[in-house]
Design brief:
mainly alpha, two-stranded antiparallel sheet, 2 strands, disordered C terminus, Oleosin
Amino acid sequence: MATFDRDRHPHQVQVHTMHPGRFDHTGGDRSHLTQNGPSKSKVLAVMALLPVGGALLGLAGITLAGTMIGLAVATPVFIIFSPILVPAILTIALAVAGFLTSGTFGLTGLSSLSFLVNSLRQVTGTVPEQVDSAKRRLQDLVEYTGQKTKDVGQTIQDRAHDIGTEGQGHAGGQVHVGGAKEGRAKA
């Protein structure tokens, strides 16, 4: 069965040989170029980076050793003071959670109010236009009230002036009722 599949699906094989004297893509002959070792720039780079890499590796080892010693010293201290540290850590964690929750609720409330104001602006028109309209109506009302007050004051002043000029010619007082004058007789 394997031979049956091979016969039905022939495969092509390509063979590429390497010739040392072939021309490269630039058209020159590479056979005379032989690399005996790394270039000068690579050697200088290795020589410059070797001490830096070694120093950093040494510092990493010292830091690891110091961390392990600190952990070995601090572990018993943490175990001894755990009845104090655990409640303190829980208290601080709950306080931080409370502040974060409060801030979240505040931001949520402000964004909700902002959304509500924007929705009202879209539904009823802009708020500044309504405020300007209300200001204009209030100014008109104040002007109307002021004019009416002036008119009423002028009317009262005119009537008082009329009463004063008419009342000075008589010895007795006069009373106006409904536009009719009534006089008192001298006693």
